[in-house]
Amino acid sequence: MADSVGTRLYSCFKCQNHLARHDDIVSKNFQSRSGRAFLFSHVMNIVLGPKQERQLITGLHTIVDVYCNDCGEILGWKYEKAYEESQRYKEGKFILEKYKIDMEN
Description:
The chain is an all-beta fold. The chain has no helices and nine strands.
């Protein structure tokens, strides 16, 4: 967290646990079942669930759910594998649902 000083941070809406830096946003133009979502290249202070196949708007993906490591709230998911070539840029990246995170600073 030392490198996050002076950087805008995103935190868990429930417990304010720091989750991601604003600089790590890849895109703000994602959609989840519950509304807008952000794609991040890196997140922190999370726990990952088991791998599962999920049919999303953009096709079939292998994903793992992302939970806050402090309060256990489900926050989004991580793309493990994309089956369509055009979606492979998502692999290894994280979706955090906008309504589940708060921006600090």
